[in-house]
Amino acid sequence: MNGFVEYQERIGMSRNTITARVYDMKSFFDKMERFDNDSVNEYVLDIINKFDPKTVHRKVQSLRAYAKYKKVFVNIEHRLPAPKRKTPNFLTSSEMSSCISSIIALNKTLDQMAVRTAFILFNYGLRRSEVINLKMDNVDINNSRITFTAKGNKDRIVPMYFLKDELVEYYNRRRELEVAGDPFIVFTGREKYTGVYKYRKPELYDLYKFLYKYTEPVFGRKINPHAYRHTFATHLLNNGVDVRNVQEVLGHENINTTMLYTHVATSKLESEVKRAHIYA
């Protein structure tokens, strides 16, 4: 699989995508002895009967990627089940205001400030992997923007929309803490290393744990950090931002992905009209 991994990296696939595709191909070869059109179609028929539509589509994408890598002709002869697209969950303006007030107060320790910074970045519309992998050099304080290589190995610029002072405060504190070989801006927790405590880049679990610790008391429930990205997009659309501009800010390759948020915005519009209309 090493050659397949190198090929995926070369064409700019994300780490998560590569991991999923390697897992899918190992699952394939656990059942099938060879990789050809007949074997692939036999396998696809099997997974259609065993997995949900979303998983089936992911596995088929992995098969197609591997076929392209191996330069093997593959024609999927079976009709794939249509995946169900979930309407994104988002938070109301009042919920976000309460949470922001609580999070902004986190400035006592560097760990707390790191959690606060992660929260701000999520509310800039960044993905989970983008928050964790964001490096110090990606943040341009003077021009108030964040520049980085996003999903699909494409450059993306994200302006610092709000709470810039809080972000700058943490950035300066973080810059003072020189950690050899650790250029990442967000980190949580410390680990013993040669007798001293050293900050480390967070795993996704670490980040979730810290965010839950400070946001669960506000919401009364655990909020998946990705919901902040959904909230960011939904409120942009609710306030009249063009869907193509939202697509660019979120880094969506396909505008159909961004269009999911218009359904949420439309639902809100319908409820507001029903509430306020003269015949309601």
Q: Could you characterize what this model shows?
A:
By secondary structure, the protein is mostly helical. It folds into two domains: 2-70, Tyrosine recombinase, N-terminal domain (DNA polymerase, domain 1, Orthogonal Bundle); 93-271, Intergrase catalytic core (hpI Integrase, Chain A, Orthogonal Bundle). Helix content is 57%, strand content 8%. The protein has twelve helices and five strands. The chain has helices at residues 2-10, 15-31, 37-48, 53-70, 93-104, 110-122, 128-133, 164-176, 204-219, 226-238, 243-250, 255-276, and strands at 139-140, 145-150, 154-159, 190-193, 196-199. It has a three-stranded antiparallel sheet, with no helix packed on it. A two-stranded antiparallel ribbon has the order 4-5. Strand 2 and strand 3 form a beta hairpin. Helix 2 (15-31) crosses helix 4 (53-70), helix 3 (37-48) runs antiparallel to helix 4 and helix 6 packs across helix 8. The longest helix has 22 residues, at 255-276. The chain is elongated, with a radius of gyration of 22 Å. The N and C termini lie far apart (62 Å). 24% of the residues are buried. Residues 276-280 have low confidence and may be disordered.
Descriptive terms for the model:
disordered C terminus, DNA polymerase, domain 1, single chain, mainly alpha, two-stranded antiparallel sheet, elongated, 280 residues, 3-stranded antiparallel beta sheet, 12 helices, 5 strands, hpI Integrase, Chain A
